[in-house]
From TrEMBL:
Name this protein carries in UniProt: GTPase HflX
Main function: GTPase that associates with the 50S ribosomal subunit and may have a role during protein synthesis or ribosome biogenesis.
Pfam families: GTP-bdg_M, GTP-bdg_N, MMR_HSR1
Transmembrane segments: none
Record's keyword annotation contains DNA repair: no
InterPro entries, alphabetized: G_HFLX_dom (IPR030394), GTP-bd (IPR006073), GTP-bd_M (IPR032305), GTPase_HflX (IPR016496), GTPase_HflX_N (IPR025121), GTPase_HflX_N_sf (IPR042108), P-loop_NTPase (IPR027417), Small_GTP-bd (IPR005225)
Coiled coil: 277-346
Organism encoding this protein: Leptospira ryugenii
PANTHER family per record: GTP-BINDING PROTEIN 6-RELATED, GTP-BINDING PROTEIN HFLX
């Protein structure tokens, strides 16, 4: 097609006549030099775009192909056409509406909207009559592409990669906490993992078990993602392997679920040999469950974020090798556990009381341990900053001392593989003489978080161990709230400002040595 217009009337008319004759839509893909690369014959309603290589052309974000097709009915460009435009990143899409003899009456053209903040991902042009088709198409494309580049460079560096769309599908009846709470926690997890959340979608029931959200909704999400340069789709649930595959088949996006996100954070944060092994084991178990059902989409499902996957995991790793590795890791962990047990026994002989700090992730456990012992255990405004149990000693007057330990934070619905993996670390809690349950009282979901922690402690059969509930971060709550807590005689502290720590130490002393009995009962001794 030797013309610098989106289509020539002669060409359109030739297509229209054939289209009317065979009573099917006809479409063509035209490259930038004007050559037809594909001829597509559809039915009377629509055409189906053949599977085009989805890899984006570097620099230019457009495919370098435009779609022209015939509409036999009086329809302008419809939703499906516009989806095709965006999902395939066509230069433009044009429909000619033809009369009964195939002669185009008028045309509609749409381009992808280069503004990622805009409401609709496309720019739909006005109706154009045959006499109005004009030259200047390549110039129009050129300015569109420079618009893309400009918008892209507006993103801050950190916001350019790991851009994510969060999707939560909830059955409120089955949930202990509100969808909004769950979603805000997912956002926190993303922040911790270094992911930039661009958009979110909450649905309050499951629509289609095969794709989780309905097909139309999924398309809409994918469309938005392409439009906003999003590369990750994160689901606030554990996706069944078949679901993950179905969703990833429908798009180029990397599909991740909550479990994978947590695994990813764990793998970044584990420091000790033990912790690293445990995370790797959990990752491999997760992978194993997925291996049998997956094929070429593996890379997008297992790579982790930014390519961090379990150890040496590559596509060619077979299920067999994964199983071997799992066995090896389990043995290694077993050996480590035995050694830990010996250490514990040695400690038990010394009869130094053990106090363990537990609580929801980010409650301030590590900060509290630091404040109580003046040590520097990593404390960060991140979820799962601590993955390795840390142990310190605190000396009290009268030659008394305790061992105090920090633990991995708890979270709602900890993925089963992970909770198993960390059970080993948490097993030590069984030896504790006292548990300090640290609560972030400044978090509006603190009640749900407390319930989650109680639930996990119960499942570990730790009900028998005396427990102190400590409300931390009282420096960031209102006076009124603080007063009401005081009236209920709650233990209020701020690990940050050290408010209430002396009282807390006294209480620990009291709990331990009063419980244990004898000598303290003598007021003189
Ligand atoms: N305002 C305020 N912030 C606190 C207080 N205690 C801790 N924080 C902050 O809360 C965040 C989390 O603290 P951490 O001590 O890492 O919490 P954690 O419970 O050990 O968290 P994980 O190890 O990730 O489970 C950090 O940014 C702390 O500075 C407090 O008393 N007041
Ligand atoms: Mg910590």
């Amino acid at each position: 097609m030797r013309s610098d217009s989106v289509i020539t009337h002669d060409f359109a008319r030739a297509c229209g006549e054939v289209s009317v004759e065979i009573k099917r839509q006809i479409g063509v893909l035209i490259d930038r030099s004007g050559y037809v690369t594909h001829l597509i014959v559809g039915n009377d309603q629509s055409i189906e775009i053949p599977h085009l290589d989805r890899v984006r052309v570097a620099q230019s974000r457009l495919r370098g192909l435009r779609l022209f097709h015939i509409h036999l009915k009086e329809d302008p460009l419809n939703q499906e056409d516009l989806m095709d435009l965006v999902l395939n990143r066509f230069d433009s899409i044009t429909a000619a509406i033809v009369d009964s003899s195939g002669i185009p009456k008028y045309y509609y053209t749409a381009f992808i909207n280069p503004d990622p903040e805009s409401e609709t991902p496309w720019l739909l042009g006005e109706k154009v009559f045959p006499g109005q088709l004009k030259e200047g198409y390549s110039e129009e494309l050129f300015s569109l592409e420079s618009e893309f580049t400009k918008k892209n460079s507006n993103f801050k560096n950190a916001q350019l990669t790991n851009r994510a769309f969060l999707v939560g599908v909830y059955e409120p009846r089955k949930m202990k906490r509100s969808p909004e709470h769950s979603m805000s926690e997912l956002k926190e997890l993303c922040k911790t993992a270094g992911i930039h959340v661009v958009d979110t979608y909450i649905q309050k029931k499951s629509a289609d078990p095969s794709t989780v959200v309905g097909k139309g909704k999924l398309q809409e999400i994918i469309l938005k993602s392409v439009h906003k340069d999003i590369e990750l789709l994160i689901f606030d649930l554990e996706l069944a392997p078949a679901q993950a595959k179905k969703i990833s088949d429908a798009s180029d996006l990397k599909i991740i679920d909550r479990t994978q996100l947590i695994l990813d954070i764990f793998s970044k944060n584990a420091k000790s040999r033990d912790g690293k092994l445990q995370v790797e084991l959990a990752q491999l178990k997760y992978l194993k469950n997925r291996l049998s059902e997956l094929d070429d989409n593996m890379s997008r499902l297992t790579g982790g974020i930014g390519g961090r996957g379990p150890g040496e995991t590559k596509l060619e790793i077979g299920k067999r090798r994964v199983e071997d590795k799992i066995t090896r890791l389990e043995n290694e962990l077993d050996a480590l556990r035995k050694r830990r047990e010996l250490n514990r026994k040695a400690r038990a002989k010394n009869e130094v009381p053990i106090v363990a700090i537990v609580g929801y992730t980010n409650a301030g456990k590590s900060t509290l341990l630091n404040a109580l012992t003046n040590s520097t255990v990593i404390a960060e405004d991140k979820l799962f900053a601590t993955l390795d149990p840390t142990t310190r000693r605190i000396r009290f007057p009268k030659e008394r001392e305790i061992i105090i330990s920090d633990t991995v934070g708890f979270i709602h619905d900890l993925p089963p593989d992970l909770s198993l993996a960390f059970k080993a670390t948490l097993e030590e809690l069984g030896d504790a003489d006292l548990l300090l349950h640290v609560v972030d009282i400044s978090n509006q979901n603190y009640k749900e978080q407390m319930e989650a922690v109680d639930g996990i402690l119960n499942s570990l059969n730790l009900n028998e161990i005396p427990r102190l509930v400590i409300y931390n971060k009282v420096d960031s709550i209102s006076e009124e709230f603080k007063e009401s807590l005081r009236e209920n005689e709650e233990i209020l502290v701020s690990a940050a400002t050290k408010e209430g720590l002396l009282e807390l130490l006294e209480m620990i002393e009291h709990e331990i040595w009063l419980e244990k009995g004898s000598e303290i009962l003598n007021p003189i001794g």
